[in-house]
C-alpha cells in the first residue's frame, strides 16, 4: 500500500512538472528568432548579407530584361519577307527599329548587308547575336560568385567561431562547462547556415536565368536561319 501511494505521488509530481517544462521549452523556442540568429553570426554575416542583396537585385533586373527580350511578334518575319520581296528595304528597317528586340536587331544588321556575299551577311548577323547574348548575360557572373562564395564565407565564419569557442573553453579553466562550448558552437554554425542559404538561392537563380537566355539564343538562331532562307529564295 505504501509503495503504491509513493508511486502515485511521483506520477502526480511528474505530471505537474512536465507542463511547466514544456512551457519553458516553448518559450525558449519562441524567443529564438531569425534576427537573433543573424546577430549571433557576427561580422561574417555582413558580406553574406551584401551577397544576398546583390543576388536578389541581379536576379530581378535580369529577369525583367530577359522577359522583354523573349517577347515576339508572330507576324514580324512575314512582314519582313513582304517588304524585301517588294524591294521596300527602308520599310523593313523601320519595322526593325520599331520592334526593338534582339532578333529585330539581328535582322536589321542582315538587311544592312543585303547585296554583299551571303557569308558576310551571316557573319554580321552572328556577331550581332553574340553581342545581344552578352548583354543579356551581364551580371550573371555575380550570381555565380555568390553561389560559390557564399558557402565558403559561411564556413570561414564557422571555423573562426569554433576557434573562439574553444579559446573561451580553455580560458574558463576549471570552471569550464558544456554550456560555454555549446554556446560558441551554436553561434559559429549560424554562419554556415546563412552561407548555404545564400549559395543555394544564388545557384538556382543563376541556372534559371541561364536556361531562359538559352531559349532566347535558340530563338535568335531560328530567326537567323529564316532570314538567310529568305535571302536565298528565288526572286
Describe the structure.
- It is a single chain.
- 86% of the residues lie in helices and 0% in strands.
- It has helices at 2-31, 34-40, 45-69, 76-85, 89-99, 102-112, 118-136, 140-172, 178-232.
- Helix 3 (45-69) packs parallel to helix 9 (178-232).
- It is rod-shaped.
- 23% of the residues are buried.
Give a brief outline of the structure.
By secondary structure, the protein is mainly alpha-helical. Helix content is about 85%, strand content about 0%.
In terms of topology, how is this protein built?
Elements: H1 2-31, H2 34-40, H3 45-69, H4 76-85, H5 89-99, H6 102-112, H7 118-136, H8 140-172, H9 178-232
Arithmetic mean of pLDDT: 80
> Measured on Cα atoms, how large is the radius of gyration?
32 Å
Q: Give the end-to-end Cα distance, rounded to a whole number of Å.
A: 114 Å
Instruction: Summarize the biggest pleated sheet.
Output: none
- Alpha plus pi helix count: 9
Shape descriptor: rod-shaped
Amino acid at each position: 500500500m505504501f509503495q503504491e501511494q509513493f508511486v502515485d505521488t511521483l506520477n502526480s509530481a511528474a505530471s505537474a512538472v512536465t507542463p511547466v517544462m514544456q512551457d519553458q521549452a516553448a518559450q525558449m523556442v519562441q524567443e529564438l528568432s531569425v534576427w537573433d540568429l543573424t546577430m549571433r553570426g557576427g561580422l561574417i554575416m555582413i558580406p553574406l548579407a551584401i551577397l544576398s542583396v546583390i543576388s536578389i537585385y541581379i536576379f530581378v533586373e535580369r529577369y525583367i530584361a530577359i522577359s522583354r527580350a523573349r517577347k515576339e511578334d508572330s507576324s514580324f518575319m512575314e512582314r519582313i519577307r513582304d517588304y524585301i520581296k517588294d524591294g521596300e528595304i527602308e520599310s523593313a528597317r523601320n519595322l526593325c527599329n520599331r520592334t526593338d528586340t534582339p532578333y529585330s536587331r539581328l535582322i536589321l544588321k542582315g538587311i544592312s548587308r543585303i547585296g554583299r556575299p551571303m557569308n558576310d551577311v551571316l557573319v554580321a548577323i552572328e556577331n550581332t547575336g553574340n553581342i545581344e547574348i552578352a548583354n543579356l548575360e551581364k551580371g550573371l557572373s555575380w550570381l555565380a560568385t555568390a553561389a560559390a562564395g557564399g558557402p565558403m564565407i559561411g564556413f570561414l565564419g564557422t571555423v573562426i567561431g569554433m576557434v573562439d569557442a574553444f579559446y573561451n573553453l580553455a580560458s574558463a579553466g576549471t570552471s569550464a562547462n558544456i554550456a560555454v562550448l555549446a554556446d560558441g558552437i551554436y553561434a559559429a554554425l549560424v554562419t554556415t547556415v546563412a552561407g548555404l542559404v545564400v549559395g543555394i538561392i544564388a545557384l538556382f537563380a543563376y541556372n534559371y536565368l541561364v536556361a531562359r537566355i538559352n531559349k532566347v539564343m535558340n530563338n535568335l538562331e531560328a530567326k537567323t536561319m529564316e532570314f538567310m532562307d529568305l535571302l536565298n529564295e528565288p526572286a
